[in-house]
From TrEMBL:
It comes from the Bacteria. This is DUF3488 and transglutaminase-like domain-containing protein. Residues 519-589 form the Transglutaminase-like domain. Residues 614-625 have a biased composition (Polar residues). Gene3D superfamilies: 3.10.620.30. It comes from Nocardioides bigeumensis. Residues 1-10 have a biased composition (Pro residues). SUPFAM superfamilies: Cysteine proteinases. Residues 1-37, 612-651 are annotated as: Disordered.
Length: 840
């Protein structure tokens, strides 16, 4: 290792005995907390932006806490702007760290209170409102599993203020104390809380965004430390001393980016390479994928087991004023396999968790809903410990539900599937509406089936052709889908010679034909086979159909109390008709004397004389085209509701919360961008106002402000000549392409500017000290001032020039500017020596 070469201290200065290089020793943490924050404007801006952006990105992991994450992610973004923006302004003003933190706490609290309660200023009423919201949020968090439903009191106040605390901690540790590594602790807490609360992993893209932000913060901090070593050695210096230690910024950036990318990739891929690790980084996210699939079991297995007439076990207890609580549905089967009907592959998104009002019924017209409004009934359900199902027993055509935990619904079938636990021992409530179907409306329903998935008309390729032949033969001469469905139901129940029996099994495609054909073992079966056969025959005729599994008829055990047992299991088909939605049919005939417990009854709307109904028109009415074909999934609000809310939409009240927050965020960003231009606009206006007055004093005042903007100490007590001698030491060459980070400075760097400064000083001296002031001509002085300003800018570093443009100090500091401790301006002379450490 070669000896350290240090230039002698300049005249009038003394090196610290503890720091042979003359640099000030590093202050302890206690002094830094009470002292001022010092750093360049670009470093402060970049580090603060990275800290706030990384913290907000980490809080994206909290999206699973509620069903509407935009209600707290938008406010947290605004709070990040408040905390970060205020921190930048106060740190550029070099205020003590404690003052910066206190100001951020006060401003952040006021902003959070305004976002939560709508009250901008603290008041007893506002604090009481905040306390009520906090109490309600805590109670909701203790009562509901994540995600919290929209109908419950929101937990958003807890998340907003919790996020504010995290933003303040990260900003304080990373930006004020310059301890980015310590700031990783609150970031890690933010990221890992959802894992402990929800039990599921965090999206991989949230992990990548957080890791990239934290790596950026580390890079910004270490690059700032690296820049304090001294000037970067150029190629000439390296050639002169091969043993010298040189740092190239590009290499540092490349190495840092490579290390960060490698670490992030390892963190993502390690769980895939080691099967024993139960880490989930790929759940959720955007688009379709296996992360939203639910592991479900086939309800037909339970149906067959329970219909074998084992022990009659009580399963459900209902409390309702409905005098006809029949056909309680558990699940909907949409796919026919070789062996039986199944639920198929379900894609149930995480956002399909609803507690409260449900979306509009698929395919049900407004007229039918209005006609059935009075036929709504509330149910309170208590599930016994014997019913362990991933499916939630509910009635068809629900309007409201309060599920017991993490149950999500399928848009196409509107059955409810568990995301984690089963139904054993749970209790819940729902409200159903009994639709007042009209046979005339069903007959006149349009043939279009665009409101439902094509899956409901899919016929398995191995279905025997004979099945379709039988369906067409039974419905021959019938010109309407609904009439064909009624004829099929009547054929199974009355005309086809079918009978009910549990002494048979099988409802797949292989058993279907033997069930439908006449013969010794034909046309005998139980509910699953009847439902399966009618559904597949309806599909061969182009009618959307599916099979529902649930309970048939409960036993009354008290006043408004009913009980379902395992022997009440049943299956039935549901067929879709535009304007009426999914309509239940009952093809299973009544059981014989050997089993009187099966007492099925055909629905009243199917027991009509279809031959005497009005013949349907060839074209659907204009009202049906727009009114009777709503979709539950993509168009949940009704068309009429959308029309009624036109005025609200025009005023902005009908916008969704996410859109409103997006508009607020865009407006906030626009305001911040506009505010960023305010200082330089004010500075330009002051400059033009001075030149309207003109004269030597205006030129001298403008020269002072230019120097202060560039961080040059201006001593008010010095004479113009003495101040001139100081300023020329800061002169540099005029700005051209490729200006170095630390340009050469001094009188010799720009002689033309020195001559211009001398002319300004002479005019100021004549104005102040001579009986006959100098020339009042302003144009020449302005040219001279511009030359001096260009020289001062040429001698400044690029960060200093940027700070002078965006945050001119002269707007906030008038008169004498105090030099910083340890700076060269404390000395009567200025030294430009450079300390270079050679490591070899």
């Amino acid at each position: 290792m070669t000896a350290t070469q240090t230039p002698p201290p300049a005249a009038g200065t003394s090196a610290s005995p503890d720091t042979p290089t003359g640099r000030a020793p590093r202050q302890p943490l206690s002094h830094r907390i009470s002292g001022r924050v010092g750093s360049g404007a670009p470093q402060i801006l970049a580090l603060t932006a990275a800290a706030m952006g990384t913290t907000w990105a980490a809080m994206l992991a909290w999206r699973g806490f509620t069903t509407q994450p935009a209600l707290f992610m938008g406010p947290l973004f605004l709070l990040a702007l408040v905390v970060g923006g205020l921190g930048i302004a106060l740190r550029l003003a070099r205020l003590p760290v404690v003052v910066v933190l206190l100001a951020q706490v006060v401003a952040g609290f006021l902003a959070a209170q305004a976002l939560v309660t709508g009250r901008a200023l603290p008041s007893p009423a506002g604090l009481d409102d905040l306390q009520v919201r906090f109490s309600a949020g805590i109670e909701t968090a203790q009562s509901f599993m994540a995600p919290v439903p929209t109908s419950a009191p929101g937990v958003e106040p807890l998340l907003i203020f919790g996020g504010l605390v995290c933003l303040l901690l990260v900003d304080f540790l990373a930006c004020s104390l310059r301890r980015v590594s310590l700031a990783g602790l609150p970031l890690l807490t933010i990221y890992t809380v959802p894992v402990s609360v929800t039990g599921s992993g965090v999206s991989w893209w949230v992990f990548v965004a957080t890791a990239a932000g934290f790596a950026t913060m580390l890079y910004l901090q270490e690059s700032e430390h690296l820049s304090r070593w001294g000037r970067t050695l150029g190629q000439d210096s390296a050639a002169a001393d091969p043993s010298a230690f040189g740092v190239r910024t590009g290499d540092v950036r490349g190495s840092a980016a490579g290390i960060a990318a490698l670490a992030t990739a390892v963190a993502l891929l390690l769980p895939l390479a080691i099967p024993t690790l139960s880490v989930s980084l790929f759940s959720g996210g955007f688009g379709e994928g296996a992360g939203d699939d639910l592991e479900i079991t086939n309800p037909v297995t339970d149906l067959r087991r329970d219909l074998d007439r084992g022990a009659d076990t009580p399963l459900l207890t209902l409390t309702t004023a409905d005098r006809d609580p029949t056909y309680l549905r558990i699940a909907v089967l949409t796919r026919l396999n070789d062996d039986s009907w199944s639920a198929g592959n379900r894609q149930v998104p995480e956002e399909n968790y609803v507690s409260g009002d449900l979306p509009r019924l698929t395919g049900v017209s407004t007229a039918l809903m209005d006609r059935s409004t009075e036929q709504q009934f509330s149910y309170q359900v208590q599930v016994s410990d014997s019913l362990k199902s991933r499916w939630l027993p509910t009635a068809q055509n629900l309007t409201r539900i309060f599920p017991p935990g993490d149950f999500r619904f399928d848009d196409d079938t509107m059955d409810f599937l568990a995301g984690a636990n089963d139904t054993a021992g749970t209790s819940y409530s729902f409200t159903k509406i009994r639709l007042d179907y009209s046979a005339e409306e069903l007959v006149n329903a349009p043939d279009t089936t665009t409101a439902v998935s094509p899956e409901f008309t899919l016929v398995p390729p191995n279905t025997p052709a004979r099945v379709q032949e039988i369906a067409r033969a039974v419905t021959e001469g019938i010109g309407n889908d609904y009439q064909r469905a009624v004829v099929l139901q009547k054929w199974f129940r009355e005309d086809g010679g079918f009978r009910y029996s549990l002494d048979t099994s099988g409802s797949g495609t292989e058993d279907l034909l033997s069930f439908l054909e006449e013969g010794p073992d034909g046309r005998v079966g139980y509910c699953e086979q009847f439902a399966s056969a009618m559904a597949i025959m309806a599909r061969t005729l182009g009618i959307p159909a599916r099979v529902a599994v649930g309970f048939l008829q409960p036993t009354e055990v008290g006043v408004n109390r009913w009980q379902y047992s395992s022997h009440d299991m049943h299956a039935w088909p549901e067929l879709f008709f535009p304007g009426s939605g999914w309509v239940r049919f009952e093809p299973t005939p009544r059981a014989g004397p050997q089993d009187s417990s099966i007492e099925t009854v055909a629905p009243a709307y199917t027991q009509v004389d279809i031959e005497n109904l009005p013949t349907p028109s060839l074209q659907p009415s204009s009202g049906q085209a727009s009114e009777e074909l709503p979709s539950r999934g993509s168009d949940r609000p009704s068309a009429d509701a959308a029309a009624d809310d036109t005025a609200a939409d025009q005023s902005g009240a009908g916008l969704s919360p996410a859109v409103r927050w997006a508009l607020l965020i865009v407006a906030g960003l626009g305001v911040l961008v506009g505010l960023a231009f305010v200082p330089q606009l004010v500075r330009r206006a002051r400059r033009e106002r001075r030149w309207r007055t003109g004269g030597a004093q205006a030129a001298w005042d403008e020269l002072r402000d230019t120097a202060v903007d560039l961080g040059i100490v201006w001593r008010a007590g010095l004479s113009p000549r003495a101040m001139r001698n100081r300023l020329v030491d800061h002169f540099g060459a005029e700005l051209v392409a490729g200006v170095p980070e630390r340009p050469a400075r001094g009188p010799d760097a720009n002689p033309r500017a020195v001559e211009a400064l001398d002319r300004i000083v002479r005019e100021v001296e004549l104005l102040r000290y001579s009986r006959s002031p100098g020339t009042p001509e302003t144009r020449g002085l302005r040219f001279d001032l511009e030359a001096c300003a260009a020289a001062l800018a040429g001698g400044a570093t690029p960060p200093t020039r940027r700070r002078a443009r965006w945050w001119p100090r002269s707007l906030f500091r008038r008169g004498q500017v105090r030099p910083r401790a340890g700076s060269a301006d404390n000395a009567p002379t200025v030294d430009h020596g450079v300390v270079v450490d050679h490591v070899g």
